[in-house]
Specification:
Radius of gyration: 20 Å
CATH topology of the largest domain: Tetracycline Repressor, domain 2
Strand content: under 5%
CATH class of the largest domain: Mainly Alpha
Structural class: mainly alpha
Shape: elongated
């Protein structure tokens, strides 16, 4: 492709990067306000001022305040899905474990990870969170369907158990209980896989 043709193409990559940066700035500003003023007291106008954008810009990205909380959960799910894509040629159960751990580490690194999870439990939209959890279970189902499991294992039930256990571990961590989220997720997965993996022979 010539330099002239490259210049003639619309800079979609740049636009997408700017949109991502704006979205990230809004989310960061929102959680700073949730931390200092409280979720109920923070307004979209205050979030816009802190993010240095127009109120309409905030509304375009997040029509309701609760959408900021849901966005955090979606971001963590995207980390999980990105890991699955990178490891598609590996053993299915190892892929799941690696993806869960990657998401847990990102959750821990996030400056407002615990706060986000606590606010989600208290204020999150049930319908939106159910949609995200359904997407998570679909991801798990797709991988578990290809895994070598113990004979007679109910795969859909195994996925439900893993998804529910994962959510419970996150909620425990958000409440300040137990070890680090990464350690808890690793232990949770190892308990789960012990029940579904085929026995080791020899």
């Amino acid at each position: 492709m010539s330099a002239l043709m490259a210049e003639a193409e619309p800079p979609t990559g740049l636009r997408e990067r700017k949109k991502k940066e704006t979205r990230g700035r809004i989310v960061l500003a929102a959680f700073e306000l949730f931390q200092t003023r409280g979720y109920d007291e923070a307004t979209l106008s205050q979030i816009a001022d802190r993010a240095q954008v127009a109120v309409r810009t905030v509304s375009n990205y997040f029509p309701q305040k609760v959408d900021l909380l849901v966005a955090y959960r979606e971001d963590m799910l995207s980390v999980f899905e990105d890991s699955l894509r990178r490891t598609r040629n590996q053993d299915p159960l190892r892929r799941i474990r690696s993806a869960l751990v990657s998401s847990a580490r990102e959750n821990q690194r996030h400056p407002n990870g615990r706060l986000a999870q606590r606010l989600l439990a208290r204020h999150g939209s049930y319908r939106a969170l159910a949609r995200i959890q359904e997407r998570f279970r679909t991801d798990l189902n797709d991988v578990v369907a290809t895994a070598d499991l113990r004979e007679g294992v109910d795969r859909p039930l195994a996925v439900l158990v893993l998804a529910a256990s994962h959510l419970a571990v996150i909620q425990r961590w958000a409440g300040g209980e137990g070890p680090s989220l990464t350690t808890s997720v690793e232990r949770m997965f190892d308990l789960w896989v012990h029940g579904v993996a085929p026995p080791v022979v020899g």
